[in-house]
UniProtKB/TrEMBL annotation:
SUPFAM superfamilies: Nucleotide-diphospho-sugar transferases (SSF53448). Residues 5-127 form the Glycosyltransferase 2-like domain. This is Glycosyl transferase family 2. GO terms for molecular function: transferase activity. Keywords: Transferase. It comes from the Bacteria. It comes from Paenibacillus segetis.
């Protein structure tokens, strides 16, 4: 099936080339598009030299805008599978075949660090946040999720179409999941190994983490209210 890997990247010159080379090694038949999200370093140059298609945004729009750009590109070019991967090397290209295989049965496949025991270890604060959001999304959707913040995801044609039309803009992983459940999509998780970022540093500071938890929690609860009202009106 025609498959595209979407990599949103902001100032990732230190890792983007190795990420692309690993994809070529483990999944040589897929195409790669890097969404260069207003980088001020050599991300575009490194990605181009490594053999990826690069779309450069004129300024930094954030992860949500970058991902939607990738899904619009996937839809316009007739891709049947679109896979999200981080540019910092956290997601292993060797796990791509595992996600792709499940897209025959599901609209979205999430690479999870916690559905089975893996070698990934996160900080206590990050782990608390992941457990909180997993329980919240499970409560709202009625489906058990273990890794709602994972950005390692493979989407089939239905999700490509939905995400090309709408993708949450700010810290979007959890909201994007709720959105698909509201649309009746079939979603599953598969166990995948992940590692800590290879270079650079995360944009998530302690203050941003608090903002993230409050903002996403309110968004999930609002989505649940809208869903319940829609169900009652039918």
């Amino acid at each position: 099936m025609k498959t595209l890997v979407i990599i949103p990247a902001y100032n990732e010159e230190g890792s983007i080339a190795s990420v692309i080379r690993d994809i070529h090694r483990f999944a040589p038949s897929v195409d790669i598009v890097v969404i260069n999200d207003g980088s001020t370093d050599r991300t575009k140059q490194r990605a181009t030299e490594a053999g990826a298609k690069v779309l450069t945004l004129p300024y930094n729009v954030g992860i949500g805008g970058g991902m939607q750009t990738g899904y619009i590109y996937a839809k316009q070019h007739g891709y049947e599978i679109a896979i999200q991967m981080d540019a910092d090397g956290q997601h292993l290209a060797s796990e791509l075949p595992k996600l792709i295989a499940q897209t025959e049965q599901y609209d979205l496949v999430i690479g999870s660090r916690y559905v089975e025991n893996t070698s990934y270890r996160s900080s206590l604060l990050r782990r608390v946040g992941m457990v909180f959001f997993s329980n919240l999304v499970t409560l709202v959707t009625g489906q058990r999720f273990t890794d709602t913040t994972s950005g390692f995801r493979a989407a089939g044609p239905r999700v490509i179409d939905l995400y090309a039309k709408y993708y949450p803009m700010d810290y979007p992983e959890v909201e994007a999941l709720i959105y698909l459940k509201r649309k009746g999509c079939r979603i599953t998780e598969v166990a995948t190994e992940m590692r800590n970022r290879e270079t650079g540093k995360s944009s998530i500071t302690p203050i941003k983490s608090v903002y993230y938890m409050v903002k996403v929690t309110l968004s999930v609860l609002m989505s649940a209210i809208r869903y319940d009202r829609a169900a009652v009106s039918k």
